[in-house]
Request: fold
Amino acid sequence: MIPLLEVTNLSHSFEYNLFTDINLILNPKESISIVGVSGSGKSTLLHICATLLKPNSGEVKLFAKDLYKQKNKDILRMRREDVGIIFQSHYLFKGFDAFENIELSTLLNNTKIDDELIEKLGISNVLKQKVGELSGGQQQRVSIARVLSKRPKIIFADEPTGNLDSKTANEVMSILFNYTEENNAALLLVTHDNDLANRCNIKCSL
Ligand SMILES: Nc1ncnc2c1ncn2[C@@H]1O[C@H](COP(=O)(O)OP(=O)(O)O)[C@@H](O)[C@H]1O
Ligand SMILES: [Mg+2]
Reply:
């Protein structure tokens, strides 16, 4: 089996050393959780694996390709077509309504709106509302719908349940785990929730 993500001897620092010698392997249908105190570098590690930030040293293989040795246009294509990133701060388009935010992702990726997914996420009744009118939890679920609508091969989720009550959080996580399982995809999850971290196949503490 070829891993979807393989991280070897990864180290990164800004003003000070964040992490050294991280090694991870993520196969299809698998999930890995990244845990650690605030400021330990969880988001930075996620961004590095998700094509967004070149590390100081070490290797990141995504879909068996040495990620940061690819041409810029190939990295961009990988990011657009195969990588799903659920950001801590959503990055939805504020001027658009919820439906348009999700639709944009399907138009760019030649996929279809998944009504069942929208129903399961509990956002059917807010689709016509502008993003700015939605609660944090609703925005979080719209951003998850947007990411899954592009049918990514790997999902990077940065505290995707941070704004949700525990019941909704569990439902949302089941959607992410089921997607991974059913589509031979993989999930890298940053979370503060220990129970949730333990639901993943592998746990990495920073
Ligand atoms: N682009 C950046 N430039 C400089 N420092 C950064 C940058 N991004 C993050 N940091 C710093 O790196 C540390 C880890 O940040 P982050 O990865 O967001 O941690 P976490 O997600 O675990 O809370 C923080 O001290 C943060 O200020
Ligand atoms: Mg973070």
Q: What stands out?
A: The domain at 5-95+146-205 is CATH 3.40.50.300 (Rossmann fold). The helical segments are 42-49, 72-81, 98-109, 115-120, 136-149, 166-182, 194-198.
